[in-house]
Amino acid sequence: MAKTTLKTRPWCPFCGQDVGRPQYPDARKLGEFALGNCECGAVYASDPSGFNIGAAIVECLVHACDDNWELAWDLLPEKDYLTGRLEDYDEVTNQVVETRNLDGRIIRGVLYFIRLQENVADLAIRFQEKGKSPDAKFVVPAKKIQVEKPPDSRRARKKANKNIVREMVQNRDIDGLVALCFDDKKTLRLLQRQLYEPDEAKRWGIACFIGELCSRVATRKPGMVSDLLHLLFEACSDSAASNWGAVEAIGSIIAARPDIYGSFTRHLLTYIGDPASRVQVLWALGTIAGKRPDLVRNTSFYQLVGLLDSPLAEVKGYMVRLLGRLKAREVAGQIRKLQDDATVLTIYENGLPVQTDIATLAKEALQLIETEGEKESERAEERHGDKPGAPGS
User: Fold this and answer.
1) Is 357 helix (H, G, I), strand (E, B) or coil?
2) Rounded to two decimals, what is the model's pTM?
3) Which of 16, 35, 76, 105 is most buried by a 10 A CB count?
């Protein structure tokens, strides 16, 4: 019996999203490779033969640095960038062929991925925008995200089990769990089970703890966190399974590392129609908007504005919180009408319950919106002042 040919679309090992076909530069030179960019910020190069990985790595790294060779050669693996690869890639059909044979052709291609750490990515952008000379000395700025130290290769690796993970979660032993994740990749799957907690306050706390943990794991193993996100989304979509804490954990993970997992934000709107998860989706969107409002604005979030009239205090409260963090001046009038609503409710911030009311949330949202309006006015005045013929020019 002939062996079945297994073909799948190529995916990013960092964020788990499908990636497009890599393209050759317009002015192709001898030895150049097809290159591509993922939504999460990773770049990739295709080596169709699988025998020129070294050259593909160099070209991929230079591409990540916007063709700045001086910057690229000063970077160190793991400290300044992460790497990943997909084997058995067929550049002709843009597919991963697990059987390594397609229509009589042997498939040995490799997609090589590089993702710059956040501080280096920001520096590469500044090089591009300011036109800084590539001969300038490269200085690493202060890191925004601390990269986890590699595990000691001489020590014995630990094995994870549900009892060890449960105890670490109860003790909030985040350092121990980070190390355990690097030792045993099933740790995050066991951690997901801790969300099946009947106590609501504890469940919110665990979900936020997972976000904090994953932000650290992602500095070295972003693909591991991506796999967890896919499992959490599957739990949300499976009507036969419990999705306790899944939406909250998804929101916490994305908010903790929006630079890597921000592309997952749009998928949260899939679950807004389910009354059982509506509050959690609004919380997740609001939490993400607190870090990266553009990720939520790029979705069709305006379909949610009608929830300001919801009879449920939690739905209305989290909707106000979301719109405030989005600086949504378009609905300021509707939010202003809620300043006298004294309905009391409990919301969760950083995994902890907070007693508040609709009026307080509305005032906080309006303050954020008005502050943004003042900033826009100042920017408009500065632009007007820079125009030729403006007073003082």
Assistant:
1) strand
2) 0.78
3) 16
